[in-house]
Design brief:
Number of helices of chain B: 9
Helix content of chain A: 40-55%
Number of strands of chain A: 5
Order of helices and strands of chain B: EEEEEEHEEHHHHHHEEHEEH
Number of helices of chain A: 8
Radius of gyration of chain B: 20 Å
Structural class of chain A: alpha+beta
Largest interface: A-B, 17 and 30 residues
Order of helices and strands of chain A: HHHHEEEHEEHHH
Oligomer: heterodimer
Largest sheet of chain A: 5 strands, mixed
Shape of chain B: globular
Helix content of chain B: 40-55%
């Protein structure tokens, strides 16, 4: 499986989630939140599709790319400014740069809250991404599944039932 | 929340734009007004009546990940239309196979399934034992059988033990059920009302387990306690062992002891007892209510339905197979 922006995002959210995902245990089909996010994605900015295109690069899918202004648009459901969201977009910029498209910036949009955040890729970011890619490869190749993190963070995760179902 | 739909009426199911349209037929084959079922609300379909459909419908159902389970006139499970596998995980497949092939690994899981099943059977018996139904002799013998669990080293010995436990357990039905007698457990065909209900209920439980396994990465044909048969999703049989006492048997006790089903709900033919259509409907309704009942889950700390417990069991099994956490079978804790 090629390394995708999802890996990058999960790496920042939870190592266990990353390991499970990379080993084929996907859970998004069980999540109402994910379905909700998809709905928001499909139904926000409906006229945008005429101008912008969906780009697939190295297995990562960029939902809206404005090629004229070189801006990546990423829509998110929750207003929580997750570190993971930023790294996901930075990784897209990184991928485009690797394939020769310079000067790209990103915009994370929260349509439900009418807010957005701008994202740029710095030189330090690039070094960090390359280090992260190596870390991810090492982590996902390991036979051992990383431990659970604290439960409070897990509540809205689609893996919650998987990780926390136990018998006493 | 997606629901299971049970089709007792004969009729035609078709795709109407992005919705299901069901046109029932009356006994003379005349079409009745159509009903519409939003596809998003359907988890699976159970067909007891004659269903007319075309491949366009199955393409639509397949895309929407809706399984269809078929039953013949005698309510036997005849097969399923299963949508394309959409959750494939090579690592899980390989590890699941290893747990089947390596005998020590397989024995561990096979024992745990029996342990869980027997625990839940005992739970039922103790419940009734505390309610002036004396089933202490059966409790004692099942406990004795359980002591032998760790002495066995072959899977078919375990299956034999499971058979003995279940035989004991079914003997207690005689005491628990007020109006009907159970006699020996007979299948193919069931000889009396209780046997007919057990067969019908077990099949419901089996289909439920299969439906839940489908939405996980587990392979339903690779089992541990049961031998993988050519035509059976035998992992569903393994899981069903654990849930039958909670889901099926308790429903049977309820519908019979509350007289929701009575002698005239059944038809005795030459050598078999058949549930009439109304009886099937009553039982399915009671079963649906049962599996949608919720409890506060101890480790998740939120309320979950009995049906969801089956899915959680699949997760625990996946974790065991991946070496994340040792599997512990579900044991009724309330």
């Amino acid at each position: 499986m090629p390394l995708t922006a999802t890996h990058i995002a999960y790496y920042h959210l939870c190592r266990r989630k990353l390991w499970l995902f990379a080993n084929g245990i996907t859970m998004e089909h069980t999540s109402d939140l994910v379905a909700d996010g998809r709905f928001i994605h499909e139904n926000s900015y409906e006229r945008r599709a005429d101008k912008f295109s969906e780009v697939e690069i190295d297995g990562s899918k960029i939902d809206f790319y404005d090629a004229k202004n070189k801006v990546i648009h990423e829509t998110k459901r929750s207003a929580a400014r997750e570190v993971a969201h930023g790294w996901q977009v930075k990784y897209y910029i990184y991928l485009l740069k690797k394939s020769g498209i310079e000067g790209v910036s990103g915009k994370i949009e929260y349509p439900v809250f009418h807010q957005c955040t701008d994202v740029l890729l710095t030189q330090d970011d690039e070094i960090y991404i390359e280090k992260t890619i190596r870390n991810i490869e090492e982590l996902t190749a390991s036979p051992a599944c990383p431990p659970k993190i604290e439960k409070k963070k897990c509540r809205y995760c689609s893996y919650f039932d998987f990780c926390w179902s136990e018998e006493y | 929340m997606k629901k299971t739909y049970y089709l007792f009426n004969a009729g035609r199911m078709s795709r109407k734009d992005n919705t299901l349209q069901f046109t029932p037929q009356d006994e003379e084959g005349k079409e009745l007004p159509p009903k519409y079922i939003p596809i998003e609300s359907v988890s699976d379909l159970y067909c007891y009546g004659a269903l007319d459909a075309n491949s366009a419908l199955y393409n639509f159902l397949g895309k929407s990940q809706v399984a269809v389970h078929f039953f013949d006139y005698y309510e036997h499970y005849t097969g399923s239309f299963m949508p394309k596998d959409y959750l494939l995980a090579g690592k899980v497949q390989i590890e699941q196979t290893m747990h089947h092939v390596k005998k020590e690994k397989r024995m561990v899981l096979a024992r745990l399934f029996i342990e869980g099943a027997a625990f839940n059977m005992l739970k039922n018996l103790r419940y009734y034992n505390n309610r002036e139904k004396n089933v202490q002799p059966q409790i004692d013998s099942i406990e004795q059988f359980m002591e032998m669990l760790h002495g066995y080293t072959e899977v078919d010995e375990l299956m034999g033990l499971e058979g003995n436990i279940r035989q004991c357990y079914y003997q207690a039905f005689e005491t628990i059920i007020d109006e009907f007698t159970m006699g020996n457990r007979t299948k193919q065909p069931p000889s009396n009302e209780v046997n007919a209900l057990i067969s019908f209920g077990n099949m419901m439980c089996y289909s439920l387990c299969l439906g839940q396994i489908y939405h996980t990465q587990l392979n339903p044909t690779i089992s541990f306690l049961h031998e993988p048969g050519a035509r059976r999703y035998s992992l569903a049989l393994d899981l069903a062992e654990i849930f039958k006492p909670l889901l099926v048997d308790r429903t049977i006790f309820t519908v019979l002891n509350k007289k929701q089903l009575q002698a005239d709900d059944f038809r005795i033919e030459l050598n078999r007892c058949i549930m009439k259509d109304a009886a099937k409907k009553t039982f399915v309704k009671a079963f649906e209510e049962r599996i949608n009942e919720t409890i506060q889950h101890r480790s998740l700390k939120r309320s979950v339905s009995y049906k969801h417990l089956v899915k959680l069991e699949c997760y625990k099994l996946s974790k065991h197979i991946l070496g994340v956490e040792t599997y512990k079978p579900f044991k009724t804790w309330w």
